[in-house]
């Protein structure tokens, strides 16, 4: 996972001292690797302990772990501005949509952890039943993934009626897996479902924005992160929806490749049945 990108996604949630450290890293990432903790503290008017707290807040064990991650990662370029203006031309809108898609793709791939993805695929593959929950734009992602897994022959539990869905969670158990999709990680229906899954011993896979205060991410057994900023004007779940679909598509590909011949047969069988109503 890109350290620079992780810092950018967490920036708005940092304290004043942490912002000074973050600004220094973003401006001079190479110097971080080459400087001692004492030098870094002096250059930012902070302290070595403040640097260690900052590193731990981002998920590292300390400043040494942060420096190693910085040394291994590539610096992420500044994101393009994607601010809508009044009466923009169609040409401009097409260009900005291209920027949004590219930004979302690169940001999502930068945040993905391959071992977490592999673990999530294994849990989905071995699950007795796969429960899914997502609200608003996230429900589009869940419905798309539901369609794919159903055609594979997976037992999937989902319902667009939240009351019915949560009632179904009374039967979730340790042999099941919950896939929860929430950009904020704080959506009430999603967190209630996750709490129930946790209490019953089910594994929780979260597709969520990289927010330091995400309740869902803290509760999940495996978190697959998407970029946590949609721009100055959030007209809807545009980038987050696309980013979440990237992740669920990768999960789907992983499941397919583990049972390629069986999946091909299942897809053909489901297509033949659907063709009967055309």
Automatic annotation (TrEMBL):
InterPro entries: Homeodomain-like_sf, HTH_RpiR, RpiR-like, RpiR-like_SIS, SIS_dom, SIS_dom_sf, WH-like_DNA-bd_sf. This is Transcriptional regulator, RpiR family. GO terms for biological process: carbohydrate derivative metabolic process. Residues 120-265 form the SIS domain. It comes from Eremococcus coleocola ACS-139-V-Col8. Residues 1-77 form the HTH rpiR-type domain. Keywords: DNA-binding, Transcription, Transcription regulation. One of its GO terms (molecular function) is DNA-binding transcription factor activity. Pfam families: HTH_6, SIS.
